[in-house]
């Protein structure tokens, strides 16, 4: 992800949040999520074209296959600075059991996503000698993925009343320009042909020990109802990291989805001091932060589910 050159005005926005649902909240095991964060980093920097990248892709598919109804490797290539990258989005789908599938208002669909690759260079490292090294990407990538893996387990244990798709984007952090970043989300959006999901959430840099999640400005401008849904669910779940105030505008995977007509909000802490440095390691993250975000997102899914079951 990157900062736009010009930040949009940080204006407070009065939003009406969805009514709470009577659906029992799904449990979220934050310690297991943290172990998944650390496991991704154990492979090494997950830079496209490396052994660590290939190993992590296999591991992600292995984790999701026993949980989801379908798991797909969405494989594609991208040309970046004369180099051909072989990339893989991992797409897992959860369908409601028979008898809970239909609603008079039509089948509903939620999209949850994160990126699983890590950056090939630590250009923001305070030590100039380290700026050409790849980063571990504990918070910048692995944190969102870890939360989605634990959400997948929750959905397996308690199947949803609506379709839920989890997408792990590749190639988000590879390049140095907007055109050479967000490769996986751009490909996914270009290939998407179905009716847009009812709402979508992007999880990026959500594991920082000192987690603070204001409402990302592009999301506020272009998907305010989704922001209201997520931050409202976070408040009801007791997730203190979510701050109901505008934050800065961040260029991230959600912009690719928004441009395709998919209403997506970015959950991101862009004040992370170890962004794009070699110090973005698991010790800078916490299970408690992962739990705050995981329970908020599962709460939003549950409230949507309550709407489906009450139709």
Describe the structure.
The chain has a single domain, classed as 3-Layer(aba) Sandwich (Aminopeptidase). It has helices spanning 30-42, 51-64, 138-157, 183-191, 217-222, 224-236, 253-259, 287-310, and strands at residues 70-80, 83-94, 109-115, 163-169, 199-204, 213-215, 242-246, 264-268. 34% of the residues lie in helices and 18% in strands. The protein is of the alpha/beta class and 311 residues long. The strands form two sheets. The protein has a six-stranded mixed beta sheet, with helices on both faces. Strands 6-7 form a two-stranded parallel ribbon. The protein is built from eight helices and eight strands; from the N terminus they run ααβββαβαββααβαβα. The model is unreliable at 5-22 (pLDDT under 50).
